[in-house]
UniProtKB/TrEMBL annotation:
UniProt cross-references to InterPro entries, sorted A to Z: Rhs_assc_core, T6SS_VgrG/RHS, TcC-like_repeat
Superkingdom of the source species: Bacteria
UniProt name for this protein: RHS repeat-associated core domain-containing protein
Coiled coil: none
Length: 251
């Protein structure tokens, strides 16, 4: 998004001249250039300039490469799925000034297992809108082990408030209609960073994408990264979000 007049923001999108596919203008300056950014199955091949997307033959996002380096290891985030195309593993590698950092998340029914190369091992028990965080090792200083976090959503399912077992606010977040964060506050930066449920009640990956179960959503563009797997049941545009009315509808 780029600043517009007053408090408004605009996003420039280039739409294909032969389909409903579209990308940010930073990827394609003219309609004729849009189609080269999509695979034969309708999956987007670049997230931002220089950030490649890799897909499986079943239309599942396999890997995002947010940083490519010549003569050195790239940064990447990868995903693995079960037989129903539901995500069960997420992993990432990132180069920093102090070395290589890796993270891995395993998703089980009602349980998330999160590990980091720093030695942190976190088990998150999920029951509806309540999450319990239990550290096996590497607990950050100042956080309580086995602490409860209650999420409160608005009418379109966005998680705006997190409180602890005493009703004290952990973090508060407000969103622009298409999912960008307009306001974020928390009683502690480290504690607030462990919030994983956000826009539409979904998890936002390090890439900025939101995972919805069968597709990935780009909040900065207001569009999906792949076509609707259900076809044209929600209209002929297979990439638009909530019929272009996210204030009223939710996916």
């Amino acid at each position: 998004s780029a600043p517009g007049s007053g408090n408004c923001h605009t996003t420039d999108i280039t739409i294909s001249d032969c389909s409903n596919r579209a990308v940010l203008r930073s990827l394609a300056a003219t309609p004729a250039e849009v189609e080269m950014h999509f695979g034969p199955g309708g999956e987007q091949l670049q997230l931002q300039p220089g950030q490649a997307l890799t897909w499986t033959a079943r239309g599942e996002l396999l890997q995002v490469t947010p940083v490519e380096r010549e003569g050195a290891q790239d940064d990447w985030e990868y995903y693995r799925y079960d037989a129903r195309s539901q995500r069960v593993v997420k992993g990432s590698r990132r180069q920093t000034g102090s070395g290589t950092q890796t993270q891995r998340v395993v998703y089980l029914p009602g349980l998330e297992l999160r590990t980091k190369s720093s030695g942190e091992s976190l088990q998150t028990v999920v029951a509806g809108d309540v999450r319990l965080l239990h550290w096996e090792s590497g607990k950050p200083e100042g956080l309580n082990n086995d602490g409860l976090r209650y999420s409160y959503d608005n009418l379109t399912g966005n998680c705006g408030l997190e409180v602890d077992e005493n009703g004290c606010i952990i973090s508060a977040e407000e969103y622009y209609p298409y999912g960008g964060t307009s306001l974020w506050t928390g009683r502690g930066e480290t504690e607030a960073d462990y919030k994983t449920v956000r826009y539409s009640g979904k998890e936002q990956d390090a890439t900025g994408l939101y995972y919805y179960g069968y597709r990935y959503y780009q909040p900065w563009a207001g569009r999906w990264a792949s076509a609707d797997p259900a076809g044209a049941v929600d209209g002929l545009n297979l990439y638009r979000m909530c019929r272009n009315n996210p204030v009223t509808f939710r996916d």
